[in-house]
Design brief:
CATH class of the largest domain: Alpha Beta
Oligomer: single chain
Number of helices: 35
Radius of gyration: 31 Å
CATH architecture of the largest domain: 3-Layer(aba) Sandwich
Number of strands: 18
Shape: globular
């Protein structure tokens, strides 16, 4: 694994300057402010008073009468299920200016109804009362939503509306049947977009614990274990409210993600990547104390990186830690600094690695007495006793704190090579092995997020209906209230049932469930082998067929779930997919071949690529000449003199404007740019486009994800000196993360990944750790069969990181890896190496 310990590129630096979106900023502000108030609870949604922006005091009764009383009275009159007695009104005379404001905003309010919280509450009440009136059990679904959102922390919600909501809940709850809710749990709980929309933004429990621990400034070692995608990497932003942070990231992607978020929060950061001395450290402009200004632009021209007294977060790689540590200690007392080591288990699954010596040196020479070891798969306290004792001996009086969280808000389905969901009740025919697996899952609840909720519900229903569960574990006895029913409680309930199924019944249950097991995705159309028509030979206006059509009889089992550019493309929904493999080239070539692009189209694309390649080479030489001329025009002078620099800037601008040679080269460059041929993949071969879905599924699913790469981006790629196959892949919406391809190509792929414009990213093992882009689906290739259990979990952690509850899957091409995931391990190589390397002895 190549974990690059080098200086930041210009592109990487510039990318950290691109601010995150407003919703992400809102979450980051909670993470930041949460250090001062761990109970912080915010909500992005608005009540009517927040929309109209008038005072609540004295106007609440009027607003209820004007906007909410009529729809409430109408539903009560129509359905007659619950009586309605309004609160006592004490109507005050509303100000004329407020009446005028409301009259002017009436149309706006009606148009914004979907964004006003009270109208959402009233709508849910109406659905509940209507269903009750019709004796329809669907009222339970609406009630569950109402119960979970009506206490959302949204300011200034109308008290009269809340009173009515509470009355509806009190009337309806006793009439609910928990089993009805559980049967529809996938839609009502897992995919409930209304609950997701109105959920409060607050700290995860593990963040609350971390911040509370650091209220005390004494020396400490914190073992910080929490699932991926739950905010561990952003926690330093909160810690930096009190401490100076040195953030060590073995994988630079993580550090750059933190930098981007920290800069968006106006945090003062510095970078130490590939450093040999302190002179290699670079400060972000926010952190600069000493600098010179560009008088022409009014911006900072040059920063004195040797003065870092303002730095709040120092982001460094493993190689640069000791340099960064001494740099930070030059401006701050040791007691004010926290070392936050992200993913310390990276490389620990190797017997030996080039970074091991540096990791050991960092630990041995570390002088910071407050350290966080943050990792989703960090060994347990009992497994790294040597490391813990070494830290305590080095820093007398240091306390050990373990934070272990199993928070999860999404379900991510695991699929085997046949694209069937994997759960304990499908995996083990042997009763003792099943019980061993259940006990292991109970002790490692992070695995619960990878239980497919739909399959869990099928099992729960089956054992309840056929009497394979003891009385106290039947649904209506186990859950007292619908508020107790949620994803985590259902999955724990599933494990409890498995654990207490009598051994003599297990064989019947196992065989019955196995016989009912289905594919996660059924093929929607059977493709028959036909005589294809080359589009170059078809008549104008005719629809051409596929070249080399796939015979479903021969491929349905061999490559089931793998033909992602043709038959199985529709299974990749909602967002991009990451395919993790050892051999990037092999899988890349497979997808070019399996795309079945007709020879005439393929040859035409290669011809255009070659032509563009020649133009790109000429353009590169012209750009170099232009840069040289501009550089020679600079007549020097004292670089530190603001007046001379200002004068030189003006002179250079005039010379560039009037230089005949420069004008000639610029015109020639523009001419070459105009000759570049625009390329786009034929829509019938572009995965999940309308035309492509029509060919392969006969339907169109707008949720099926397709790439969104514009012409300008295609031109940038075509101008790179990379193998033609990577350019063809790009036209299919497929990018690759492989350090061997080239830095410029890789930076463009990262840009596309961040903006979610790629259909698939094929990534080498370098990216199993620390790829913080949002993926909805992931493949773990056959050639990764030697991974440890911890590394498998890290690979799975790349999926399901975005905010919404979409359809997430992790798909294994080797079923043995799945068994490794769910079974206790005999030897933990990561813990062995940590005890050896995180130690002060030689």
């Amino acid at each position: 694994m190549d974990l690059n310990q080098s200086k930041l590129s210009k592109t990487e630096w510039n990318n950290t300057e691109v601010s995150v979106d407003d919703s992400e900023k809102f979450i980051l502000s909670v993470v930041k402010n949460g250090f001062s108030d761990v109970k912080i609870c915010e909500n992005m949604n608005k009540s009517l008073f927040q929309i109209v922006k008038i005072e609540k005091s004295g106007n609440e009764d009027y607003m209820f009468k004007k906007y909410f009383e009529k729809p409430i009275q109408e539903m009560v009159t129509k359905y007659g299920v619950v009586s309605y007695i309004p609160l006592n009104f004490n109507m005050k005379k509303i100000k004329k200016i407020d009446i005028m404001r409301l009259d002017n905003l009436d149309e706006h309010i009606q148009a914004k109804k979907n964004e006003i919280f009270e109208f959402e509450l009233i709508s849910l009440c109406k659905n509940i009362l209507k269903a009750l009136h019709q004796k329809n059990t669907t009222f339970v679904e609406h009630l569950y939503t109402l119960v979970h959102i009506y206490r959302s922390n949204i300011p200034d919600v109308n008290a009269h509306v809340l009173a009515f909501v509470e009355k509806v809940i009190q009337h309806t709850k006793p009439r609910t049947n928990v089993s009805t809710l559980i049967k529809s749990a996938v839609d009502v709980i897992e995919k409930n977009q209304t609950i997701t929309k109105y959920q409060n933004i607050e700290l995860f429990d593990h963040q609350k614990k971390l911040y509370t621990i650091f209220k005390d400034p004494e020396p400490k070692l914190v073992l910080y274990i929490a699932p991926t995608g739950t905010g561990k990497t952003m926690s330093p932003i909160g810690l930096s409210e009190k401490y100076k942070i040195i953030f060590i990231c073995v994988s630079r992607h993580v550090g750059l993600a933190l930098a981007k978020s920290a800069i968006s929060m106006k945090k003062k950061i510095a970078f130490a990547f590939g450093c040999e001395t302190a002179s290699d450290i670079r400060l972000h402009y926010f952190a600069a104390s000493v600098y010179t200004m560009n008088h022409r632009t009014g911006r900072i021209a040059k920063v004195d990186n040797s003065v870092g007294d303002k730095v709040e977060i120092m982001i460094c790689d493993v190689q640069s830690y000791l340099v960064a540590m001494h740099y930070m200690m030059a401006f701050n007392g040791e007691e004010r600094i926290v070392t936050y080591w992200d993913e310390p288990t990276i490389t620990m699954d190797y017997e030996s690695h080039e970074l091991h010596e540096q990791i050991h040196k960092n630990w041995k020479e570390n002088r910071i007495s407050k350290m966080v070891l943050s990792c989703a798969t960090l060994p347990k306290e009992r497994e790294i006793t040597n490391t813990i004792m070494d830290f305590k001996m080095k820093f007398g009086g240091a306390e050990l704190h373990t934070i272990e969280s199993h928070d999860f808000r999404k379900s991510i389905s695991l699929l085997n090579k046949d694209t069937k969901c994997v759960l304990p009740h499908y995996m083990f025919e042997n009763y003792d092995e099943m019980i061993q697996c259940v006990n292991y899952c109970m002790n490692n609840m992070t695995l619960l997020r990878y239980f497919d909720l739909g399959e869990v519900i099928k099992f729960i229903e089956y054992v309840n209906v056929f009497g394979h569960v003891i009385e106290e574990l039947k649904m209506h006895n186990y859950f007292d209230d619908i508020e107790e029913v949620h994803m985590k409680s259902l999955k724990i309930y599933y494990l409890e049932i498995l654990k207490r199924i009598p051994q003599e019944r297990w064989s019947d249950v196992y065989n019955a469930m196995l016989s009912k097991q289905t594919y996660k995705y059924e093929l929607t159309r059977q493709i028959r082998k036909t005589t294809s028509v080359d589009p170059s030979q078809s008549k104008p206006g005719s629809v051409f067929g596929k070249m080399n059509s796939v015979d479903s009889a021969n491929t349905s089992n061999t490559h089931r779930g793998l033909l992602l550019t043709t038959r199985d493309a529709f299974t990749l929904t909602s967002g991009p997919t990451i395919y993790m493999v050892q051999d990037v080239m092999k899988i890349s070539e497979f997808y070019i071949k399996s795309s079945r692009i007709p020879p005439s189209i393929y040859e035409n694309m290669i011809k255009k690529i070659n032509t563009n390649g020649i133009l790109a080479e000429k353009m590169s030489k012209l750009k170099e000449k232009i840069d040289n001329i501009k550089g020679n025009d600079d007549d020097g002078g004292d670089k530190k003199s603001g007046d001379k620099k200002k004068g030189n800037d003006k002179k250079n601008a005039r010379r560039e404007e009037h230089s005949p040679e420069l004008r000639r080269l610029t015109i020639e460059l523009d001419n070459l740019k105009s000759q570049i041929q625009i390329m786009q993949m034929e829509q019938a071969y572009l995965p999940n486009s309308k035309e492509h879905q029509k060919v392969w599924t006969n339907t169109y699913d707008e949720n099926a994800f397709s790439s969104r790469i514009d012409e300008l981006m295609v031109l940038r790629i075509m101008g790179l000196t990379v193998d033609d196959k990577y350019k063809i892949l790009l036209l299919l919406g497929i990018g690759t993360f492989d350090n061997s391809i080239g830095e410029e190509y890789l930076e463009i792929m990262k840009e596309l990944a961040y903006s979610q414009k790629l259909y698939i990213i094929i990534a080498s093992t370098d990216y199993i750790y620390g790829t913080n882009y949002s993926f909805c689906h992931g493949y773990i290739g056959k050639d990764l069969s030697n991974m440890t259990q911890q590394k498998i979990i890290q690979a799975m952690g790349r999926i399901g990181r975005n905010k919404l509850q979409n359809d997430y899957t992790v798909r294994f091409r080797d079923d043995d890896l799945i068994k490794l995931l769910f079974c206790p391990r005999e030897n933990n190589l990561e813990s062995i190496n940590m005890n050896r390397l995180f130690c002060s002895d030689d």
